[in-house]
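User: ok so my PI wants both of these folded by tonight, can you help

Assistant: No problem, let's get them done. Here's the first:
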Amino acid sequence: MAVAKSAVRVPASKDITFSWEGIDKNGKKIQGELLATSEAVASTSLRRQGIVVKRLRKKSSMARKRPITGKDVAIFTRQLATMLRAGVPLLQSFDIVAKGHSNPSMQKLLMTIKSDIEGGNSLSQSFSRHPIQFDALYINLVNAGEQAGILDAVLERLATYQEKTLALKSKIKSAMFYPAAVMTVAVVITSIIMLFVVPAFKKLFSSFGATLPTPTLILISISDFFVHWWWLMFGGLGIAVWFFLHTLKRSRTLQEAVDRLVLRLPIFGPILEKAAVARWTRTLATMFSAGVPLVDALTSVAGAAGNIVFYNATQKIRNEVSTGSSLTVSMQNTAIFPSMVLQMASIGEESGSLDSMLSKVADFYEGEVDDAVAALSSLMEPLIMVILGTLIGSMVIAMYLPIFKMGSVVG
């Protein structure tokens, strides 16, 4: 049976999702889903499309809605840019992209935006009503593209920017995930050994009536502490983590301290710093190439690096540029950008190709992050295995030392 999606109506506050099956004008069986306020409205809408309805029922609302992710927005941006570049009208482009999107939540959002445009709003104004999915940078770029009449070109640059940013975030997450996952497993295994395995051995050793080796006594003491105070340890750790995250969201001073500390970490710090520089330069290059004035571009760029240290530096750069200083001098005054970035920015300002130079800097640092993540992965695997082997092996040896001692006495 062929699967088709009927034209999705603009979602209202009381819209219901209906699943349907029917026969089209060519006598072919088709099925799909439809948004409507009632079963009668859904049936009427399908008949108007020439579909003979055989089955129509309300879809269960228990199904979990998929959230709209950054990847969904990036795919939409790329598809919309392609449609506009091909000469497809804007409203028709929204129809095509919405129907072809795999996320129902994104479909509803796009049709809502289309409705706003039909009501007389500009594309950037329609996007601005959904700040969670479309941030200030996105809206400013779209607005610049509309004003200059180069919306398709701006959307292509924006799609490229989003794709590169998502790829960079993915690499950073992959670099952090492996050691975090392994250490979590190590904590779980150690807790199980301390709470269940060591006490079982303790009962066994109590029947020996002999003096236990020092490593075994130490391990049993640690296990006794775990058994008696595990609730305090895990509860205290949970409360401490919750309190830290809760305070981090509300305290700018703590955010700045943490972000500065993160950049100074021995292994991960340089990777995160390169990633921040890559995102900062990529964002500014994208904004500037779209025709956004430098001062306005810096306003949107401030939060793009994802680090409050770069945010504060960008605000300082913006203030100095607005009073007549050059971008390179203002960047140099912050003392956080590498010399290569400053030199490339200086060449770009002098040659009038600032966006091109910043794009090259972003490409370079994204490549540096790729290499650093690959090197980190190859380094962390044996290092973590050595740490885990030493930790678990020490506990196993401490538990079996009395058995070895008893065996040698018997022998």
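One down. Here's the second:
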Amino acid sequence: MENLLRPLIVVGGSVVLTLFIGWATDRLLCKADQRHPETPLWGLLRRGRIPYQLVLCAALLRGSYDQVEVLQEHKTAVGRTLTLVLIGAAAWLVIRIAAAVVETSYSRYARVHRDAARVRRVRTQVTLIMRVVSAIVGVVAVAAMLLTFPTFRAAGASLLASAGILGIVAGVAAQSTLSNMFAGLQIAFGDMVRIGDTVVVDGEWGTVEEITLTFLTVRTWDERRITMPVSYFTSKPFENWSRGTPQMTGIVYWHVDHSAPLDAMREKLRDILRECPAWDGRAYGLDVTDTTPNTMQVRALVTAKDADDIWTARVTVREQMIRWLTEEHPYALPRVNTADATTPPNRTNGRPSVDGAPPRQRRAHEAPRADR
């Protein structure tokens, strides 16, 4: 009976004590979050409750397992399993704490600075820093788990001796991966492109949605995702519409008839933009930029605060101007000229006339002179 009660008491007591400590810690963090609403740190730390409880439970069971006289033939395996759980839970907890600290720092920075470009830059750096920290903690945790096995400890000397050769081989084999990793760090701290930037790559217009150490994801206007290696942005030119100030100038073209009312079109453009929320009010204009035998090209300039608004302003101006021309000035729309050609003055059938008189009159006038 004692052999059955002792393991139940140890295991049950460890679980109950873990739940109680976890609940008490969560209550304390909740009260701290309510007392300090200016910082999200305490609320973010509550996300680590599960790994925190796993660390407590694994530590309690690992420390009290020797007192339980059960499964003695599997004592080593059970102890090693608890150690592995403890290492994994500790790594998970460290990542959660680091994420809470980094996210708090970013939130504080974003609250103080109003420059959207600088905030996006810091957001990109924070994201990559967290990925690096998670990778380092994960590698250290896996290494610590492997070192719990005597076989790996005995092979440690030979592994260190061959580390140089393995490093060279791995470097050659993972050359593209390493270049992408360094390119990701260069993008993060070189401020080349940030999360939320509007870019044009390979003729595709979209917004940078995710940046990792190896790849970058661009969300296009039609909700597609373009994934490309980050080394693309360090080796090839691309357009970053959010670089510097996000303000943009857009262009709208029309082909209209030569008789189009340009002054009325300028007034209509002004009226359209005044009613368009996407226009930022900085500037606008309408000019003739080119002509053809049948039409002339009219260009309108509009401004907006960012790439999304410039798109809205352009399509609004284009649509409403065409509708207005169709309803109010249909003669201004492009058309094919089918009228007869007008004869130039002082020319008949391609031959010049004398004193503006037709050829028949000229011959009749000259005939008497020939008889004389």
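The radius of gyration is 39 Å. Confidence is low (pLDDT under 50) at residues 350-372. Good luck tonight!
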